[in-house]
From TrEMBL:
Signal peptide (residue range): 1-19
Pfam families membership: SusD-like_3, SusD_RagB
Keyword Magnesium: no
GO CC field: cell outer membrane
Cited SUPFAM superfamilies: TPR-like
Identification of the protein by name: RagB/SusD family nutrient uptake outer membrane protein
Residue span, SusD-like N-terminal domain: 93-231
Domain of life: Bacteria
Amino acid sequence: MKNKLVLSMVLVAAGHVFSSCTDFLEYQPQGTLSSENVKSADNADALVTAAYASLGNGEMIGPIASMWVYGSVRSDDAYKGGGGVADVQDVNFYEQYNLTQPQQGDGFMHPYTWENYYKAISRANVGLRSINNLSETAFPLKKVRQGELRFLRGHAHFMLKMLFKYMPYVDETLTNDQILATSNRTYTNDQLWDKIAEDFQFAIDNLPQTQSQVGRANKVSAAAYLAKLRLYQAYEQDENHRVVSINKAKLQEVVKLTEQVISSGKYSLQPDFAENFLPEYDNGVESVFAVQYSINDGTTVGRLNFETGLNYPHGAPQYGCCGFHQPSQNLANAFGTDANGLPRFTTFNEGSIDFKSATVDPRVDHTIGIDGHPYKYNAALPFSNSWVRDPGVYGYFQSMKEQQLATSSSYKKQGPFIGTSKNIDIIRYADVLLWQAEAYIELGQHTLALPLINKIRARAAASTGRTKKADGTDPSNYLIKPYDASNWTQSYARQALQWERRLEFATESPRFFDLVRWGIAAQTLNAYLDKEKSRRGFLSGAKFTAGRDEYLPIPQREINFTKGLYKQNVGY
């Protein structure tokens, strides 16, 4: 068994904090350790472990590891699912866009997500205050652990920025009074990116290439995360979230940083796409950084991920809950290919794909539960339309990547809810390849992007062994080919890159954030809605409003608590 960083045994976070901002910005994890009572290097090291634990301290009503609500359902990839629009209605509000409100779900979803990320930041800052005061003689790993804590803090701030755009930046140097006087508009959009980048750069400068325990950040994973940040930053936005320019210097930095990751030799694509979604391959060669989970670790229920626990097929007897996160017809159609094994960019969504006759990208059977097709690589367990909870509202497809078989050693059911110990990857090596390809395309060096994208497609073509039916045949007509260099213009390459990211990471949740980064969220999502309304009546009133819906509103209770110090995002 790998020497995996154990997250569950050191400190356990407190329950929900209801009294607003001061609680989580001054939050101290419950337990025996704090910056005031750490007396030894061992105890300081335990604070670092506690900071890692915070990555998995989200919950169904305040997710921070899985972005299925904020990134998949808010995009054209998936519907909310479940038992109709009133079932966990806050998710329906996000899906409809125009129903999202700053005061929405006070104590539910995005206010709790905000809170849980700041709890994570607080843990990192508690650890930094403690370790900063230790000498390297007393604590030889001082710089390494500081690098890990700043990496973790950078991750939490990055996620908040991706979700809310403007939020207060909090580091270990601020006193409680200074924290409470820190506005979410202290920094400009670009300055805020740079502040977060400082943490990842410190991690690059101080972390080793390899750590003895898997799960810990290293120099290469820090370089990958900084590449991700610089790519987001390169698409410069105005105050109304319009992309007004693309910063070439930032793109050059993306190329340099991704090349550090690629040339390190530490990471590569898993040979089979399926392996990214099976617990037996946690911390495999494609996992650049992941949230770690565990089961049967001596705790009551294990260190399990319950954030995706609503998303199993409701009607399947081995599950029984709850049918959320259903792939859209638009996404299913996007997996169709033409006679050359390439995407049908302009005609893919004209009807509803027939999986008995259409040619498709093999990744569809890794992503979507389809009637009669093997469920989660079990040929003896075909997915059934009877498993779908409310097909009259949401159709018959079910998401599949985040789910595990009930027979998996990673699976545990607690009452009606389901948790697993399968890690959640924050960065896959496939991300790194496609980030570099994207940077090359926007730099006008699109020919350099072609082999990177085709490498991803070649892996997809080779990933059909686990999807076969009981009789050994493929459940779908697979046809996927590499792109040809003869028509590889910058415009075509950009379209191919955007398509490849969608199919590669479908229902993993980056889709919405990609659309916002590229500046095409409004046009893409309103075109999606125009067609989808004829298929799904519950979307009849949905509309994406440019200049508002690219970001979530700042929780109203935080604005109220700070007496207006925090400023609301535009449009709300």
